[in-house]
Amino acid sequence: MFKFQTAGLALVVSLSPVLAQAKSSCQPKIEAAVRNWDFARKVYESNKSDFMSFVDCGSSFTSSMGTALHEILHNFNVGGRRISKDSTIGGQTSWYLPSGEKIPYPGGDAGDPVLNQFPPRSIAPLLQTRDMDYGFYVVNSKRATSAINFNKLLDELNSYGADTRFVIKLVDAGYPNNGNSSGGLFALATMVRTYLAAAERSHPQAWSRLQQGDYKSIIQKVWANAEVAIKAICARPEIMKQALAPGWARELIENRNPGALESLLGRRLDLPQACPSKSSVPHSNPLPPVAEQPPPKPRWPVIIQPGGSSGSGTSFILQ
What is the reported pTM? Predict the structure, then answer.
């Protein structure tokens, strides 16, 4: 059985070798697309078969390429996958940033012991939007480890930032504009900002830990990547209109109470003054407290590369 790990949902899917063979015929199209961003090309080359398993070579090609980049970043982060012949993190859990940096998690996969006393699910009642397409990241610890591990929350923000930037590059290169996950970018940016503000306000030990050099540096780098993606998607209304969760975008842009985040960045936030969205979803109701919620249906296509010993298809686990 092949196991694929991310910070998201757990799924088990099995496909026939026939469908996977059709997937491999799409490889030239995938390889042409990743040449539009060197970072995406490097991630693809680190694990081609897994990357291809997320790609829909039909009508959702562009958005599924973003999904593939997003999910393989999790896979690299969790498994310490080799990115080149002479560059590997080994087995240590780490962030892989669009800048090319590979930064190990403080505390490893289990998370930092100080921050674990203030898990991200603690901030769920503070969020302004009721959008469970993304709210599960801080509500449902059974579905998302980001609800209990701040490292994973930052990891999601890093992946959504890279995902969004890649989709924009593909649309600019002439690939179809068939949807994007920038709603997740806005949601995770809002969650990270809210977490930092809550730590500063009422959790002195966590706030003291976040101000230390290792966390301060990674927060600066992950947030800078997010800002690049946010400004890029907000400048492209024809792409932004395909995004889910406009309530999250409005909350991030309109609620300018950065405080703790600006303190850690050492500068003002670099966000646009407005961001278009396809609807105006009310966001005055808070998320419920930390009660577990049933997971929504996955938003990504799951198409599997076979290769198990049985020859009849491979089980694929997505966590």
Answer: 0.78
